[in-house]
Amino acid sequence: TEPLLAVDNLHVEFTTRQGLVRAVNGVSYTVNAGESLAVLGESGSGKSVTAQAIMGILDMPPARIPKGEVRFRGTDLLKLSDQARSQIRGQRIAMIFQDALSALNPVFTVGWQISEMFRVHRGMGKRDAMKKAVELMDRVRIPAAKQRVNDYPHQFSGGMRQRIMIAMSIALDPEVLIADEPTTALDVTVQAQIMELLAELQRESNMGLILITHDLGVVADVADKIAVMYAGRIVENAPVHDLYKNPGHPYSKGLLDSIPRVDQKGQDLYAIKGLPPNLLDMPPGCAFHPRCPYRRDNCVTDVPPLYEISGTRGSACHYYREVLDGTVE
Ligand code: SF4
Ligand code: MG
User: Fold this and answer.
1) Fewest C-beta atoms under 10 Å: which of 53, 162, 164, 272?
2) How far apart are CA 212 and CA 97, in angstroms?
3) Pfam families annotated for this entry (predicted)?
4) Could you tell which of 282, 297, 317 is best to mutate to test the pocket of ligand 1, judged by most ligand atoms within 8 Å of the CB?
């Protein structure tokens, strides 16, 4: 059976003045209805570019997709006409962006902006569309929605503005919702509330949810499964609890060890040494080798494939068994 959304061996490259950047290098993942996938990675790992390819919002050129498919209910979106694509974008597959303040128009009320979704896409009249806007503001738990529907974006806090963005993104009942770093600009408590809201909405409407983040700490309670990206590839995929219990790639292990934990108060936090690689000058072999405490000789020459650990787990590390068993130090 075909998943709701399947990214299959996706490659995205950019032509730059300095040379060719392979931003996404053979990425595959799937999301089903009612399932939530966290895509984790540092900036430049290719996680946002993959999402932009799904949405069809990459600038081409300079971007190019030399290989791969993005199948939505079995149809490869990359082969659709622009017009067919725009019927899906924002309606059946919607996206929430990081920066709610710049995404909202400062000169229109939030009610007007939310209700625009219904006026433009559902042909509703102003009054009905405005009523729907209030309903949606309730649904994303904006207090006193009826009173606040005619307020302007700047009259809301950052967290409330993000809720307004979420309201707009779910207005047309999308089947897939992609949230790209939806909480990065917010403080920790508000981050948790927004994540909780996304999880609730996802359960209520049985959407497929893709949560893109650089912060492993915020997705633990929300995601079912996780794909860890590094330098344009997936280095580990796993059910979220399996990865938390026992990561199967040194990079995931490093990320996990750098999350503050209540049970380890006072201990020094581990941080992964070094920087992500320059995509114009990728290290040979395993791209993580310059930073890897587990590195051996062949890591510098042999690119690790995504080894299958089980039916639901994979790791792109030659020594994943030792990493899982904790036998390599
Ligand atoms: Fe580290 Fe080698 Fe595994 Fe890469 S393949 S993550 S360098 S041990
Ligand atoms: Mg990004």
Assistant:
1) 272
2) 10
3) ABC_tran (PF00005), oligo_HPY (PF08352)
4) 317
